[in-house]
Write a structure and sequence with these properties.
Elements: H1 18-26, E1 31-35, E2 38-41, H2 42-58, E3 66-70, H3 75-86, E4 90-93, H4 100-110, E5 114-118, H5 122-130, E6 141-145, E7 163-164, H6 165-171, E8 187-192, E9 202-206, H7 207-221, E10 228-230, H8 238-241, H9 243-249, E11 253-255, H10 262-272, E12 276-279, H11 281-289, E13 300-305, H12 311-319, E14 322-330, E15 335-339, H13 351-358, E16 363-364, E17 370-374, E18 389-394, E19 401-402, H14 406-412, E20 413-414, E21 417-426, E22 432-437, E23 441-444, E24 447-450, H15 451-458, E25 464-474, E26 478-487, H16 497-505, E27 516-519, H17 533-550
C-alpha cells in the first residue's frame, strides 16, 4: 500500500485541556462544581478558567514556567488543573501534608514562578519561603485563595501576595485563546513522588500521557455520562488520578469538600445523589467505621488503590452498598494503569474469596501497552503466583522522566521498559499481585513514604546506634511505619518509645512518623552485614496483629 504521511489535519497534539471546551458546549447549563452554597455550570467553569489563564499571562507567566498550587479540594483547585496549562505553564500540585522545609525544597527544585495558596496554608507557605537561601534570587509570586468557610480567613494579611484568586479571575479576559501545546510531548504536569528528601524526584508528564490516562480511567471504571463525583481523593495526589480532566470529558458534576469527614461524606452522598468517588483503603475504613454509616439508598462506585484493602474492610464497605474497584498505579504513570478487572463468575464465590481476588492489583488497563513481572535478567517470571520479580510496564501513560535527574530517569527506563521498583507475582490467570517493594516504600493512608528517609532522621538521634523502618499492617491506614532501633552502649538515660516518636515529629511530616518503636539489642543482619528487613516485617506484622487484638 502507498505510504501516506501525516498532515496538519490529522496531527493535532493530544491534550485533555480540550475536554473543557466540549463540556461547555454540550453540558453548558449542567452543574460542573458544587461547594457548600456555591454552584458553577460548565459554561461558568470554562469562562473562569480562561479568565484566570489570561491573568496569569498578564503577571508575566510564560510558556513552560512552573506554577505551583497548595490547596485542598475546593473549586479553585479544580479550576487550576485547567487554568495553569491553559496559560502554557506547567502545573505543580503540592501535597498539603508536607512540612515547610519540604515545600521549600520542592519550590526551589521546580523553580516555581508563582504559587496559588489556600488561606489555611498561608503561614505554611510563608515559612517555606523564609527557608530559601539568601543567594536564591528568584522567589515565586504568591496568590491567595480566600474562603469564607475558613475561620478567621477574612482577617489574614495579604501583604505578601500579589493578588487574590478571585481578584485575578475578575481581571482576566473571558475570550482568551488558551495556549495549545506545540507538541503533545510538551510537559504539562510536574508532580513529586517524595516529600522529605533533599533531592526530591519531580515526575514530568506530557499532554499526550495525561490525555491517555484520563480517558483510560473512564473506560476501565466504566464511568457513564454526567456522573456525580465526590472529591474524597486529594487532587494534589497524582492530580486526583487524572480525574479532573476525565470528569470534564463526561460532563459530570464535581462535589468539592475541603476536608474528609465520614459524616459529611455520607450527607453529601445523600444530598447530591453521588455516583462515584475515589480514595485510599483508609477512606473505606473511615466510611465503614463511622457512626454515621448506614446502607446507601443507591449504589456508589468507589475506586481504591494503594495498599491492598483488607478483606474485612472490603466486605464491610460493599455491605453498605458501595461498589468497590481496585487498581494500581504510580505517580510516574499519572493514574491507575492496572485494575482488578472483575469477572461475572466471581460474584458466585464466597465473600472472603471475592475479597481476596479483589485485593489483587489485576491486569493492564486498555491505555497501558504492556505490564509484566521480570527477573534480574529481564526475563518474564513464571505465571504461577509464586515466582517473584520486579513489576515493569510500558505505554503512553508513563512519564517523560524525572526533572533535572538524568541518572534517576535512566535507572528506571531500561530495555524499553519502565521499572517500577515494586516486587510482585503474576498469577496463572494473568493477574498481577504486588508482594513487596524493592525500594521499601510504605503506603500509609494513600501516601507513599520511604523507609530510608525515616531511618535517616532516626540515625540523627544521639542515642540511636542502628535504625530500620518497615511497613506494619494497619486496619485503619493500610500500613504505618514501624521503627526498629538499637541504642548506643553506655547511655545514661535511655529514650522511651514516646521519646523517639516525639523526636521524629519534630523532624518530619506527621504522616511519616513511626507509630510503633521496637527496641532491640541488635538488629538482624545477613552475613554481609545488611539488615534483614524481611525478618523485621514479620515481627511488625505479628506485633500489629497482637496490638489490634488487644484493642
Amino acid at each position: 500500500m502507498e505510504q501516506l504521511q501525516p498532515s496538519a489535519a490529522n496531527s493535532s497534539p493530544l491534550t485533555p485541556l480540550g475536554f473543557l471546551d466540549r463540556a461547555a458546549t454540550v453540558y453548558g447549563d449542567v452543574p460542573s462544581i458544587i461547594y457548600n452554597h456555591t454552584t458553577f455550570t460548565w459554561a461558568h467553569t470554562r469562562r473562569r478558567c480562561l479568565q484566570l489563564a489570561s491573568a496569569l499571562i498578564s503577571l508575566g507567566i510564560r510558556r513552560g514556567a512552573v506554577v505551583s498550587v497548595l490547596a485542598p479540594n475546593i473549586p479553585a483547585m479544580y479550576e487550576l488543573q485547567f487554568s495553569i496549562p491553559f496559560a502554557g505553564a506547567v502545573l505543580n500540585n503540592i501535597n498539603l501534608r508536607l512540612d515547610a522545609r519540604t515545600i521549600s525544597i520542592i519550590l526551589r527544585h521546580a523553580n516555581s514562578s508563582l504559587v496559588f495558596v489556600d488561606c489555611a496554608s498561608r503561614d505554611l507557605i510563608l515559612e517555606a519561603l523564609s527557608l530559601f537561601p539568601e543567594h536564591h534570587t528568584q522567589r515565586p509570586l504568591l496568590v491567595l485563595i480566600t474562603d469564607d468557610t475558613v475561620e478567621n480567613a477574612s482577617a489574614l494579611s495579604t501583604a505578601d501576595f500579589v493578588d487574590t484568586y478571585e481578584g485575578l479571575v475578575s481581571k482576566g479576559d473571558p475570550n482568551f485563546e488558551w495556549a495549545r501545546p506545540n507538541s503533545e510531548w510538551d510537559p504539562m504536569i510536574l508532580n513529586y513522588t517524595s516529600g522529605t528528601t533533599s533531592s526530591p524526584k519531580g515526575v514530568v508528564h506530557s499532554h499526550r500521557g495525561t490525555f491517555i490516562v484520563s480517558l483510560d480511567t473512564l473506560i476501565d471504571w466504566e464511568v457513564p455520562k454526567s456522573p456525580i463525583y465526590l472529591w474524597t481523593l486529594p487532587i494534589f495526589h497524582a492530580n486526583g488520578w487524572s480525574l479532573p480532566w476525565g470528569i470534564a470529558a463526561v460532563g459530570g458534576t464535581n462535589i468539592c469538600v475541603r476536608k474528609f469527614d465520614a459524616g459529611i461524606v455520607y450527607s453529601l452522598i445523600k444530598l447530591h445523589h453521588v455516583t462515584h468517588m475515589c480514595g485510599a483503603p483508609v477512606v473505606l475504613n473511615m466510611l465503614t467505621n463511622s457512626p454515621d454509616n448506614k446502607p446507601l439508598e443507591k449504589p456508589v462506585h468507589i475506586l481504591t488503590a494503594g495498599a491492598p484493602p483488607p478483606a474485612a474492610v472490603l466486605h464491610r464497605t460493599e455491605a453498605l452498598g458501595f461498589v468497590v474497584s481496585h487498581g494500581y498505579g504510580l505517580t510516574e504513570t499519572g493514574g491507575l494503569v492496572v485494575s482488578c478487572a472483575w469477572k461475572e463468575k466471581w460474584n458466585r464465590l464466597p465473600a472472603t474469596e471475592r475479597a481476596r481476588l479483589k485485593a489483587r492489583q489485576g491486569v493492564r488497563t486498555v491505555g497501558m501497552a504492556e505490564v509484566d513481572v521480570v527477573g534480574p535478567n529481564g526475563e518474564s517470571v513464571k505465571r504461577d503466583g509464586v515466582s517473584i520479580g520486579e513489576v515493569v510496564m510500558r505505554g503512553g501513560c508513563v512519564m517523560l522522566g524525572y526533572l533535572k535527574d538524568p541518572e534517576g530517569t535512566a535507572s528506571c527506563f531500561k530495555n524499553g521498559w519502565f521499572y517500577t521498583g515494586d516486587v510482585g507475582v503474576m498469577h496463572e490467570d494473568g493477574y498481577l499481585e504486588i508482594k513487596d517493594r524493592s525500594k521499601d516504600v510504605i503506603i500509609s493512608g494513600g501516601e507513599n513514604l520511604s523507609s530510608v528517609e525515616v531511618e535517616s532522621i532516626l540515625y540523627g538521634h544521639p542515642a540511636v546506634m542502628e535504625a530500620a523502618v518497615v511497613a506494619q499492617p494497619h486496619e485503619y491506614w493500610g500500613e504505618t511505619p514501624c521503627a526498629f532501633v538499637s541504642l548506643k552502649a553506655g547511655i545514661k538515660e535511655k529514650p522511651s518509645e514516646n521519646d523517639i516518636i516525639k523526636y521524629c515529629r519534630e523532624k518530619m511530616p506527621r504522616y511519616m512518623v513511626p507509630k510503633s518503636v521496637v527496641f532491640k539489642d541488635e538488629l538482624p543482619k545477613t552475613s554481609t552485614g545488611k539488615i534483614q528487613k524481611f525478618v523485621l516485617r514479620q515481627i511488625a506484622k505479628d506485633l500489629g496483629s497482637y496490638t489490634q487484638s488487644r484493642m
